[in-house]
Amino acid sequence: MNQHMFRSAIILLAAVLTAFAQELTTAKPESVGLSSERLERIATLVQRGIDEKRIAGAVTLVARRGHIAWLKAQGMQDREASKPMPPNAIFRICSMSKAITSLAVMMLYEEGNFLLDDPVSKFIPEFRNPKVLVKPAAGPSYTIPANREITIRHLLTHTSGLTYTWNGDLGYTYKAAKVADGLNQYDGTIQDSVKHLAGLPLLFNPGERFEYSLGVDVLGYLVEVISHQTFNEFLRTRIFEPLGMQDTYFYVPEDKVNRLATAYTWYPGKGLNRFPDTPIAEGPFSYSADYPVRGPKKLYSGGAGLCSTAEDYARFCQLMLNGGKLGNARLLSRKSVELMTHDQLGKISSDQAFGLGFGINGEKGALAELGSPGEYNWGGFFYTAFTIDPTEQMITIFMAQVHPDSGRDLEGLFHTLAYQAIID
Q: Where is average pLDDT lowest: 170-179, 205-214, 311-320, 363-372?
């Protein structure tokens, strides 16, 4: 074997060992304190949703103590083509992208690039001197100077004063300014969209309240500015490859498009129907399902743009559950994970707890359903959701593709059924 072949063999072996180290292994449910019989109730629930034509299909995953105890694909990936749902189906995860973007930001934070209360204008000057929208009871709207600048913490906690296109006060302004929301084809980059956004009024003074927003898209561009990489490249080289997330992309490669789950709509009286070829408009807000495979493919939306599989996303969740480490990949310190999963809203919200990229259950009130105080979670526009529970060392992931959904709350019921399967 010559030197070149030997070096290639070593590189290949290292890649194989790395992939193995990052693999989430499967285990019998009982070996991790779960009941096989009780987990089967999840299959019954999902099948009921399919039979009632609430969803076309789904993939559900439950992991505990570092092992996948339940992974099941049901129904159809493409109902009209009679194509069964595979366990490695790729889903539009939309706002579940936000948690991954928050991880990227915190990795740069740990490298000493900024403090959380630094103004974002330090890196994106267009955000200097923000103004706040004022809508008087009579007369036209106007703006006044904000009483403070937007900080990186404000962006991570949705307290920046930014909003989304669906907002009744600023939605049409966002649309006219060509601000992207990640749910449509967009002929521009995240830099283009964020700079358009930076020139628009805020809904309120930064830090005053929680408003779900495009702030996480701003963070995606912040990653580009600090790292001198495209956001896509940063995620690929710094997160996806180290974690073995081989099926997570902004734009699904051609050789994997056949695994992208079909998106559906559900409306009362109309039932479940394939998503239309043209975007759906709801006032100033519009959304499509073809953006992962068609269009300019230049926008890397930190708030909504990623597609992934249940197993890939479980790797990210396990990293967080392990305190920032998976296999031999250490992406964060335990202390950063603690900070990210600690309520940051404080007195801003008396009942809602939100950390740096995650909603937190049971921290400001009683748990509404089965679960554990301190479990953290989020969901996505096309009916996907995850929960990470440090107390039970458990991860739950639900992946379907429908919007609007039927209101059946299959995801919430799935979460309950995962927890009722605990037997230790």
A: 363-372
* DSSP per position, 383-407: TEEEEEETTTTEEEEEE--BSS--S
**Can the peptide bond before residue 404 be classed as cis, meaning omega within 30 degrees of 0?**
yes
CA dihedral 98, 104, 110, 111 (to 10 degrees): -150
Which residues, at least 6 apart from 268, have a Cβ–Cβ distance to it below 8 Å? none
φ and ψ of 69, to 5 deg: -100, -15
d(CA 313, CA 129): 38
| 33: nearest Cα among 406, 397, 389 | 389
Distance CA 119, CA 153 (A): 9
pLDDT in tens, 20-49: 445 689 999 999 999 999 999 999 999 999
Domains of the chain, each with CATH number or no CATH: 3-99+233-419 (3.40.710.10), 113-227 (1.20.58)
| 293-345 pLDDT tens trace | 999 999 999 999 999 999 999 999 999 999 999 999 999 999 999 999 999 99
